[in-house]
Amino acid sequence: MEELMLELKNEIIKVLNLEGIKPEDINDDDEMFSKGLGLDSIDALELIVMLEKNYGIKLTDPAKGKEIFKSIRVMAKYVAENRKK
Amino acid sequence: MNVHIVNSCHIVDRKFQYGEKILIDRSNEQESLAEFFSAIYHEMKLAYPKFFKMDLLCKAGFLASEALTNGNIDKTTPKTDMGLILFNSVSSLDADEKYQQTTSGEEYFPSPALFVYTLPNIITGELSIRNKILGESMFYVLNKYDPDRIMEIITDTFNDSTLCSALCGWLDVANEEANVHMFLVKRNHSPQ
User: Fewer C-beta within 10 Å: chain A N or C terminus?
Assistant: First the structure.
């Protein structure tokens, strides 16, 4: 799980262009939206695309993203349980 | 003429110029346009993380507008008498092409972050948010850089509106090149 969380942090920094932020700056349990990284709705859509592209996970209900992207730990758990690749 | 140019900012040939003074010259660096813009951002000591999510057209306009507005306007007060009058000839071609790359080929993963910049006038929104500009905003796509036509449109806009000032200018960004000439324009006071 630790390895997957680090992988997700690196991927999030890359796809969301979070310049100046390092993986160690993102706490595993920090809220990613509103507080924490301060991501917005376009970022959420980009993360949905990333899940499909990297892990073969298709989110048919975008509203579910709010739950899945709560924190890195929650996201990693969901990816580990649902990944197709 | 009912307006005058307060100051200007130019981004051409990997040089960043404010008025007559070249502030940053990276014409000898081997770097992408995105890297060049990032270097300007850091050199200007700006703190606006949204910058890194913008497309190259918005980054160019943002950097030039920061040079023009810092110390000249209050960014925290909403301004209904300030507007945006921008021009170019290539529309949002750079963002359009990058978005198209995500929708073609074997891997079909359209990027939402790229899609939101596939209109040239997105920059008017970015600059309005940053500077709390609530006046008229427009983005014209012309056949070519035509300073006389541009000045005519700017003066006509001031004639037909209640604008007191505007960020105006030319913003062409394509093929890893930027050709930017932006100005802070103010209405002349009427003679008493």
Answer: C
